[in-house]
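## Example record

The block below lists the input lines for one assembly entry, exactly as stored, with component labels intact.
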Amino acid sequence: MDSLEYIDDYFKGLLTADQKKEFEQRILSDPSFAEELAFYLNAQAILKDEVEEEKKARFRELYRQNPPVDAGADPGADTAGGPVVRRLSPVRKLWPYLAAASVLILIVAAWLLSGTGSGPDRLADQYIHGQLQNLPVKMSSVQDSLQKAIALYNADSLPEALVRFGQLLQRDSARAQARVYSGIVCLRLDKYDEALDHFRQLEADTTLYNNPALFYESLTLMKRNHPGDSQKARQLLQLVVDRDLDKKEDAQRLLSKRW
Amino acid sequence: MRPDNTITDANIIDNLTRNGNDRRKAEDQLFNGYSYFVKEGIRKYSLAEEDALDVYSDTIISAIEKITTGFFEGRSSLKTYLFRIFHNKCVDRIRQLTTNKNRIHRTAALADQLLSSLSDSAKSIVQRMADRSDFDVLRTRLNELGDNCRKMLALFADGYTDKEIAVAMDYKTAEVVKTSRLRCLERLRQSYNVLKH
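Predicted structure tokens for the full assembly:
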């Protein structure tokens, strides 16, 4: 009993530095104590296993009761401070319809303009006007800094939005969502080099599961349309398709045009 | 009515660190919130649904442990953090499936974690002894302990303090819990040693 209490106190961090040294010495010099310690660890391990099995059974039941709807979400995207994405969210329920409506608008617009022989910059313009006029807003009682910046963007206050996104990046340069949006604002403000800089930094972030950097980089090159940009943009779009990256479908649509 | 929209990462983290009913609820919320990862496991990593669900459950259990022990620092969102764990576990699972490698026994991992401040020689003595133990016998003996004992030991293994166990199991004080818990452990040790020798 004494040994078990001693071991228990050790793991609870209740021993002083000297007592910890004695504890180690006792392991080295007293095999029966070392054996008790091994027993304690094994018992903990088995109990932990059982607790985990119990939790897994509970989770399996939860999963069976509420099978997940394919969220089509971006699991790697940063949503610090925002609400946890919920299947039951009314906004999420609307997403498939909004996405379908957006795609339909894009297709109709593309069909109307297909005969005009668009250059890459015009095609990029069409995409920007169709897809990047508004950024997605999260419904939450808490409006964090990112949401405030998005609200400015959606109100067409682009320079102010850029400042806000920049402040977010200064606080946390790894904040991917702020990086994407900063690039998009720069693109819309015709600050192509800055936009490219943001997207290239984003591209280097290997921690992201879904990374739209290459797609936006090619869109920026299409819009800038300097000599060589068009060819480079096509190569990048092809990479997006070949590697099955984020925005693959949009890349396929752009590649299917003549420009 | 907005049933779950007002639940933030902060709410979940806060409730996870309060052991008791709030924690169990928060565990379920965390699991439900990102269960669509299972589909990602099937689609991106070509896992069978059962494997993807198992990996996702492991992800949630691991995240709960990190959060309750203060290892989650909040430098990324919960979603990003979870997905990183999920990704790594998917890769491990694929490796495990392709190499048919058994998972490292939990005691080795637990010993590494718990005995991290000890010297290598002390650690290896304990590890050798732990490896020689008969887990099946120990598990059998554990199952023969009374319900109260098992519940108390399980809660402790799940990270509850004696004070929190006292609240959850209606004991008067943390000291009573500690004494009872160590008595249960001693009973387990004795019955294990009898059967083993």
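The CA atoms of residues 9 and 77 of chain B lie 8 Å apart. Chain B touches chain A through 78 residues (CB under 8 Å).
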